[in-house]
Design goal:
Helix content is 68%, strand content 0%. The chain is mainly α. It has a domain of 77 residues. Helix 2 runs antiparallel to helix 3.
C-alpha cells in the first residue's frame, strides 16, 4: 500500500523495485503457510503410526525436523521484510509511513498492537511515537 501510494505521487525506480521485492516476499510467506500446513500434516501422520511400529520413531523425528525448517525460513524472510520496510520509510508518503513504522515495531499493522517497545530498542524513524508510557497507564 505504501509503495502504491508513493508511486501515485511520484514514479520511482527504487519504489518499483521495493514493491516487487515486497510482493515476492508476500508470495513467499503465503507459500510458507502452505508448507507449514503440509509439515503439520506429516507430523500428525507420523504420530498416528502404531507405537509398536519400528518406523514410528524415525518418522516422527524426520517430520519434526522438516517442520522446524518452515519457522526458520519465516524468521529469515521476516528479517528481510524488516530491512525493506526500513528502506521504504523515507520513500513513502507522510500519511502512509505510520503503517510501515507499526509493522517494523511489532510485525503488525498498528503501532498500538503487540507488546510495548522495550527501552533498549532503537527508534526506526525520527517521528516514531513513544507509546511506552501510554501503554503502561492504559493497561
Amino acid at each position: 500500500m505504501v509503495c502504491a501510494l508513493a508511486t501515485k505521487k511520484e514514479e520511482s525506480l527504487e519504489l518499483n523495485d521495493l514493491e516487487a521485492r515486497l510482493s515476492s516476499l508476500k508470495e513467499g510467506f503465503l507459500h510458507l503457510a502452505e508448507k507449514d500446513e503440509e509439515a503439520f500434516t506429516a507430523v500428525m501422520a507420523a504420530y498416528r503410526l502404531p507405537r509398536e511400529d519400528e518406523r514410528r520413531r524415525p518418522a516422527i523425528e524426520g517430520a519434526l525436523l522438516d517442520a522446524a525448517e518452515v519457522p526458520l525460513k519465516v524468521a529469515s524472510d521476516g528479517v528481510s521484510l524488516l530491512s525493506l520496510l526500513v528502506v521504504l520509510v523515507p520513500l513513502g508518503t507522510r500519511q502512509s509511513v505510520s503503517d510501515v513504522g507499526g509493522r517494523c515495531d511489532h510485525g503488525e499493522g498498528s503501532d498500538r498492537s503487540g507488546p510495548p517497545q522495550r527501552a533498549d530498542q532503537p527508534r526506526l524513524y525520527e517521528g516514531q511515537r513513544d507509546n511506552r508510557s501510554s501503554d503502561a497507564t492504559s493497561r
